[in-house]
Amino acid sequence: MTISDLDDNNKQNLRKQAEAKLGFECINISEMSEDNIRKAFQEFHTHQIELEMQNEDLRLAQVELKSARKSFSDLYDFAPTGYMTVSAKGMIIKANLTVSTMLGGKEDSYSNNHSLPLSSGKTKTNIINTGKTY
How many CA atoms does the CB half-sphere of 41 hold within 13 Å? Predict the structure, then answer.
């Protein structure tokens, strides 16, 4: 989410939080020399540019992260080997398409806490402990 994505109310809340962290002290520039005002303005402007550069780096990293996550998700979901995440109680937390096909279900039908459709608890334990594909 970017600052431009925030509605006005959220922008105001964000500003209030920033001011609270800053302590929002008013600076009396009439007591500052012209040279000190220029230096302070230069410092603030430089810091603003640094923040904009960091923000752009974060946006690029987020795009790269989304791409990597999709790649790994595709590797998991479309792998020719069946993969599933199973809870200690034998509940399928997540299964890829190969497992769903092997168990006779539809795409993603064995995800989200479905019980393993096995005849005995011993078989469930063997699959969980040995990591054998089913």
Answer: 8
134 Cβ contact list (under 8 Å, min separation 6): 82, 99, 102, 103, 116, 118, 127
- What is the pTM (predicted TM-score) of this model? 0.54
User: Which two structure tokens, joined as six digits, stand for 55?
Assistant: 């923000």
DSSP reduced 3-state for 91:
strand
Specify the number of domains making up the chain: 2
Do 63 and 93 reside in the same domain of the chain? Answer: no
Q: 44 vs 2, which has greater pLDDT? A: 44
* Paired tokens of 96: 């890829």
Q: Is residue 6 part of a domain?
A: no
Provide the domain limits for residue 65: 34-77
For residue 28, being part of any structural domain is answered with no
C-alpha torsion sign, points 23, 29, 33, 36: positive
**Beta strand ranges found along the chain (DSSP E):** 84-86, 91-95, 114-115
In terms of C-beta density within 10 A (0-12 exposed, 13-18 middle, 19 or more buried), how is residue 113 classed? exposed
